[in-house]
User: Fold Galectin from Nothobranchius furzeri.
Amino acid sequence: MNLSDALDWPSDGNNQSGGLWPSNNSNPTWPGQPATNPTWPGGQPAANPTWPGGQPAANPTWPGGQPATNPTWPGGNPSQPAAPQNSLVVPYKQTLPQGIYDKLLITIAGTIKPNAKMITLDFLAGNDLAFHFNPRFNEDGKKVIVRNSCVSTKWGKEERELQQFPFVQGQPFEMKILCTNNEFKVAINNSHLLEFKHRFTNLRAINVLHIYNDLTLSNVQMQTLS
Ligand code: GAL
Assistant:
């Protein structure tokens, strides 16, 4: 049984049995790839109960008993309460007290600035970058999402392959990052985008999330899927 089945978690397209993770193009049943999805923002595919507007009934409380609807960090984080629109300061740093682990889901809501050059999201382990996610809006006239890691100040091999570029200057987005034992899975606006296989195996050492460059942030939410 793969993880998606175990969780009833959205498929990445390799899991043809379905699930709730937004699918990539290999699954024709999923509505709304970013380029063709006219419902975003503001619209939800009715069939997907995990997307904004509702968590599945089985879905999770944070360890220690946070209700699923409470977007605060476990134990509470008075300095970053549930936030109204565009109220988080960028650059934004979030400590991950328990590091990264299987079934940790991070949901980020924000808006790309109108003349954005790039946005960046880093998962740090000390001074190293376990996962650098860097959508660039104009690299020699092209849009590209660069993914990489950086150990002892040395960048690793870039991953650039992707058909889609779902971010739009001036537009809001919602990003979901699901951590598994093998990879980070990233979905944008309800559509699975990519995976980044772990290069850092000590997942618990990945203890900071950093979000910066040309965006505003309205909400960053963590939860553990049951
Ligand atoms: C470099 C860039 C870094 C980082 C890296 C990723 O060219 O200066 O900020 O994005 O690529 O491989």
Observations:
- Residues 3-7 form the longest helix (5 residues).
